[in-house]
Structure prediction request, 559 residues.
Amino acid sequence: MAELLVVLVAALVVIATSAVVGPRLGIAAPLLLVAVGVGASFLPVFAELHIEPEWILEGVLPPLLYSAAVSMPSMNFRREFGAIGGLSVLLVVGTSLALGLFFMLVLPGIGFAWGVALGAIVSPTDAVATSIIRKTPVSKRVVAILDGESLLNDATALVLLRTAIVATAASFSFWGTVGTFAYSVVVAIVVGGVVGAANLAIRRRVTNPTVNTVLSFVVPFVASLPAEALGASGLVAAVVAGLVTGIRAPRELSPQNRLSDSQNWRTVELVLEGVVFLTMGLQLKSIVLEVERDHAGVGPAVLVAAGALALTVLVRAAYVAPLLGVLRASARRGERMRDRLQEMQETLATPDGKEATLARANERRGPGRRTARDIERFAVRVTRSLADIEYLRRQPLGWREGVVVVWAGMRGAVTVAAAQTLAVGDTPQRSVLVLVAYTVAILSLLLQGGTIGFLIRRMKPTVDPAVAAAETDAELDRVFALLREAAAAIPEPPRPEGEPTQEQFETARSHRLSVLEAQRTALLDARDDGTFDADVLEAALANLDAAQIAIELRGTFRG
Prediction:
């Protein structure tokens, strides 16, 4: 028992130290942790170490993906969903098939089905690995695309892995595979949506922030475990629960509860991410020894892994290049629609304009009559469309961003855990396949993760500081104007003369809280419409939360 406690304490110290030392040395913390894990694997205490892959797939990844989904800006996710969906499904399938052919040719005795299985293992990018990109000065669109891709592509890879393994012993059915994938995703979305909504319904009734945070820790498992039991993707269910929670939490949960959640989940993320990379390093020695014992040596496997990584980058580049063209064409179409949409917005901004629009809509043939509510929804869609066009204009995707999207697609925990799920005895050359998958992940972290920061700094276009500052100031002015407008809508109580009484103090306190609530609602409505930068809104919401917590604490102390 004492030995286990020493190992746990040492692991926490190493994780914390890597998080502090890594940035100072210009080395990504995950790379340091892998190196420490490799070194620690030579200690006698880790000689017989065996880590069950289910611990990673079912115990570590659901909370990590849930936490990432909660913190993802919902409007940016919606705007980039087309690109995210393509990268998460089409690219994973295409990469797996290309790698399947490659592995069949270079690994003797490995058929196409087992090659596709290994290709599915190394195809998905990893949310933990791509966290490296968030610490670099890269476009927010690139971060949103990479985050969204790493959240969703695990389901595609794991379903494809299961299908490929089944295909090694039975006939392959294309439509059966499509049906399995569709079932896995749809059921996971339903389960995750229900759990996310139930999570908020329960936790908004719990006023103790500590208890509320404890309840939040079980949400990803409450979503993932039933989904897995139904044959669906537990990871997708955890992601959906996180997205629902992230979107609705500012409206449903108190600032104290959300602040407690944020602080504690950041700690959980740091520890779990560190555990993933430490275990990668710890397991590498045993896999290398197994390959050396059962096969010709590790050299051929490392060469195969290097070739596989190069192929994944080439396939990714071949997919991303036309994707950028499609996204730029979509942005140009939006620019052409801007004037027309602005006219619509001006018309719908007045009661007379709404009535005229409703009358014209009902004059046209169509099923059913339009109502004032339909016109309000249409006005919201127009506002969002204009906000999307402005977002795309301010965040264009050029060749620099394309290079980052290609090079930042790193492999990590999912690859490592999925490789360990290959059955012992049933998988031909299992130790070689596992070593190839591990080596791909480590090479990806080392080559891509170790150079992405330098690459971004070298390619970063020159930005006029005056122009950037002017844009930021203009955005802040719009936010402050919105806050003033929301505050003005709340009638002020009469100002007390002389020393305020307790009742007057409570009235003023209640008024200030009402103002903050109105301002928060206005900011959240603006967030849903996408009319402000996500980071600016997040900062403004954080300031409102801090002000409300301070007022509530002062009221508690005074009472």
Observations:
- Residues 465-558 form one domain.
